[in-house]
Amino acid sequence: MQSLKEERAGSPSRGDPRFMRQAIALAAGNVADGLGGPFGALVVRDGQVIATGVNQVTAALDPTAHAEVTVIRSACRRLGAFRLEGCDLYTSCEPCPMCLAAIYWARCRSVFYGNTAEDAARAGFDDSFLYQEIRRSISERSLPMVQMLAEEAQASFVAWREAPGKVLY
Amino acid sequence: MQSLKEERAGSPSRGDPRFMRQAIALAAGNVADGLGGPFGALVVRDGQVIATGVNQVTAALDPTAHAEVTVIRSACRRLGAFRLEGCDLYTSCEPCPMCLAAIYWARCRSVFYGNTAEDAARAGFDDSFLYQEIRRSISERSLPMVQMLAEEAQASFVAWREAPGKVLY
Fold it and tell me: How far apart are CA B166 and CA B118, in angstroms?
């Protein structure tokens, strides 16, 4: 299994302002179109745009449809892969924790962002709060989280360890 | 805008072992079916299963298709809503940071989980590493993240603040 800890292939690229301007234009355009929040993103590889995405939470009735998640899904479909190795992600705003983790799972090479999480908070989005929550231990979070049936749950990982021919990701 | 910080409606329920057993069975079944990782999840409201989900990263070529993200999307489609207020999420394993943040964005009421992130790490999944990374400041992370065009990027949030009739989420 290729660990998230391993070195990424290639050296991080320098950001290209043309791609960031495109992400910002997507974000502003999404507001003008009334499709969702002010967020746009691109996946770029070797100087080519692989996919673009915008926030579609309210239009698609999908709380996970942030611009970065949307563009990762779209780029993976385009490339026929579940990893985006060698790809850079441009986003009009620093990713929220959901999107940041998605970027790691997708193995993107680098992230270029415009606004910060604090800028997002000032615009009414809870990204900063979410970073605080995720840094807390389970018992300190505002979301109640309770472990159950710990012994029985091990069965799923036993099945995984023993499964022949599984596709690692 | 309903903030993530606000109190959740209703008091957290006690977990129902039947639903957790179903999540664990989904996880083990997903391995047996060869569809993806050993993870299963349910969204439950008022004692009724609204949706079920499994990890589909490799089958769907979607690195964001963890069981919890999959079940949140499915439950939102079923309910025709971009929030899952009053819903509990049962998952065979403690959510990774992507899924945990998705659960906050979806406004789930409570989370019940079987395995821990440390159990997942022992089974070969990088959830614990990802929690460490997200707790770090941007400059300390292994993923290169660079801010660009900060002033120009403000245009997207200005557009949002000034947009009439926007749908808050």
Answer: 42
- Contacts A57 to B, Cβ<8 Å: 82, 105, 169
Collect all residues with Cβ–Cβ distance below 8 Å to B14 and sequence separation of at least 6: none
**Across the interface, which of B1, B38, B163 has its CB nearest the CB of A160?**
B38
Confidence of residue A8 (pLDDT cuts 50, 70, 90): low
CA-angle at B90, arms to B84 and B92, nearest 5°: 140
Question: How many other CB atoms sit within 10 Å of the CB of residue B135?
Answer: 14
Query: Chain B, 119-138: which have a CB under 8 Å from a chain A CB?
Result: 119-120, 122-124, 126, 129-131, 133-135, 138
What average pLDDT does the structure give for chain A?
A: 92
Retrieve residue A18's tokens: 């043309």
Sign of CA dihedral A98, B79, B43, A166: negative
Question: Which pair of structure tokens corresponds to residue B3?
Answer: 């903030």
Residue B77 scores a pLDDT above 60: yes
Confidence at A1, pLDDT banded by 50, 70, 90 = very low
Which pair of structure tokens corresponds to residue A83? 């990893």
Query: Is residue B68 among the annotated active site residues?
Result: yes
Average pLDDT for A98-105: 97
pLDDT band at A169 (very low <50, low <70, confident <90, very high): confident
> What was the ipTM of the complex prediction?
0.93
Q: What is the average per-residue pLDDT within B97-124?
A: 95
User: Do the chains contact at B150 and A93, CB–CB below 8 Å?
Assistant: no
Please indicate whether, in this complex, the C-beta atoms of B94 and A145 are within 8 angstroms of each other.
yes
Residue B9: C-alpha distances to residues B2, B4, B19, B43, B87 (Å): 12, 12, 21, 16, 10
Separation in Å, CA of B48 to nearest CA in chain A: 19
CB-nearest partner of A72 from B63, B76, B113: B63
Phi then psi dihedrals of residue B36, to 5 deg: 170, -160
Q: Which residue on chain A is closest to B123 by alpha carbon?
A: A157
Alpha-carbon distance of A67 to A69, in angstroms, equals 6
Closest-CA residue of B relative to A82 is B61
> CA-nearest residue of chain B to A146?
B112
